[in-house]
Amino acid sequence: MTQFNSISQRAAALKPSLTLEISALAKALKKEGKDICSLSAGEPDFNTPEFIVEAAIKALKDGLTRYGPASGDSELREAIAYKVTRTNKVPTKSENVLITNGGKQAIFNLFQVILNPGDEVLIPSPYWLSYPEMVRLAGAIPIPISSSPNDGFKIQLESLESKINNKTRLLILNSPCNPTGRVMQKDELESIAKILRHHPQVSVMSDEIYEFLISKNSYHISIGEVAPDLLNRIYIVNGFAKAWAMTGWRIGYLSGNIEVINKAIALQSQSTSNVCSFAQRGALAAIQSPKEAIQEMVDSYNERRRLLTQGLSNIKGISVSPQEGAFYAFPKLPEDITDSLNFCKMALEKVGLAIVPGIAFGDNQCIRLSSAVSKDTIFDGLNRLNKFLSNR
Ligand SMILES: Cc1ncc(COP(=O)(O)O)c(C=O)c1O
User: Fold this and answer.
1) Secondary structure of residue 89 in the 3-state scheme
2) What's the CATH code of the domain at 323?
3) From the CA of 350, how far away is ligand 1's center (Å)?
4) Among 226, 260, 290, residue at a domain's last position
5) pLDDT tens readout for residues 161-196
6) Are 210 and 326 in contact (CB under 8 A)?
7) 14 falls in which pLDDT band (50, 70, 90)?
8) Which residues fall within 8 angstroms of residue 221, CB to CB, at 6 or more apart?
9) Taking CA atoms, which of 55, 117, 183, 184 is between 20 and 30 Å from 214?
């Protein structure tokens, strides 16, 4: 038999997203009539607020249906620059902003533009599962920096510094973090900035997509605020998917150094062109709205994250550290369980519980559960997990 050999080496090494796979499997089983409880989703369970939908409908009716600039709508770039400057306290001009097809394309473009084959990228673990794949697609090498659930997944600074060498090009920060929900504190960011000052070859990508999904007594800080002297090598990735419940709209942005942004615009102009024109008008309405527009959703995520974490802490064998951001819990399984993928497959088979194995995020001892589901689903999921663990 002749072997099919048309797949590039790049593509051959690519793994599909395990989170999307588990969600799809749970949906398929549900469709077959199986009783499935899914805590696997990574997206808001709200509809996009009406005023955002109306803005996009108006744009369509006004004829905003043609090609636009590859860099994004000028008004939206301007509004994002204003928001990053005011809210994140990182001085930014519209020329420093590129509108992308979700946060994902912002990350992809950045890696393609700044990484060379053999470069190393430091990724604090647990990490969002697309980072290493996109690093590899750029020919670079992901270098995980492990952390422990025992101290709430704090980045170990000695470990971080020990992994820096002359091939290191980028450090990825993600706060609030998917999957752990951890919010980085000001002193930690300052310590990281201090390390980076000794290593001018290392840039930072700060993924802040969950910045607004944070509990009342916590606050999000962008590393650019604490290290204005490093702004020339700090890149912010953000998007509209999570805070405004706009996952399907596919709007994100990259901001930073103008030379890199211009190259990313060139890349986008030769690949995908502009992000959907009328969707950008929805994003403009979102970013210009008062904070109160999303407060109800934020309060609801906070309440449900708290319920999920509390419920998990009552399950024998599970240890969980309460976190302040995003809408996930990332508890540790009992010590004798060392294969999170097998654990999740068995949980789906035996008690119809769909959850994501920690191995997808670089930690085989944990599982990720989403609280962006109804409270009833959270309680149902907790009961099933308890039952599964007690009967194994
Ligand atoms: C940490 C993190 N960064 C980026 C993204 C990408 O978001 P988007 O849907 O805007 O591409 C996600 C989505 O799940 C995420 O969890």
Assistant:
1) coil
2) 3.90.1150.10
3) 30
4) 290
5) 999 999 999 999 999 999 999 999 999 999 999 999
6) yes
7) confident
8) 175, 184, 185, 186, 189
9) 55
Report the 10 Å Cβ neighbour count for 57.
Answer: 13
CATH number at residue 125: 3.40.640.10
Q: What angle do CA 131, 134, 140 make, to 5 degrees?
A: 100
b/e sequence 179-201, b meaning 16+ C-beta within 10 Å: bbbbbbeeebbebbbeebeeeee
C-beta 247 within 6 A of ligand 1: yes
Best of 104, 135, 275 for a ligand 1 pocket test (most atoms within 8 Å of beta carbon): 104
Is 178 touching ligand 1 by the criterion CB < 6 Å?
Answer: yes
Cα angle 309, 310, 315 (rounded to 5 degrees) comes to 95
Q: Does pLDDT of 125 surpass 90?
A: yes
159 and 13 fall within a common domain: no
- State the pLDDT at residue 275: 98
Question: The tokens of 334 are what?
Answer: 């009992």
- Is the same domain home to 300 and 200? no
- Would residue 115 count as lying in a domain? yes
Q: CA separation (Å) from 45 to 48, 136, 206, 304, 374?
A: 10, 32, 25, 12, 8
User: Strand, coil or helix: what is 299?
Assistant: helix
Domain identity same for 120 and 89: yes
Q: Domain of residue 347: give its range.
A: 9-47+294-391
3-state class (DSSP) for residue 225 = helix
Tokens of 13: 């090494």
Q: Is residue 192 domain-shared with residue 123, that is, in the same domain?
A: yes
Q: Which residue has the tokens 């986008």?
A: 268
Q: Please indicate, yes or no, whether residues 30 and 146 belong to a single structural domain of this protein.
A: no
pTM: 0.96
Contacts of 18 (CB under 8 A, 6+ apart): 129, 356, 357, 359, 360
DSSP state of 279: H
**pLDDT tens-digit readout, 209-219:** 999 999 999 99
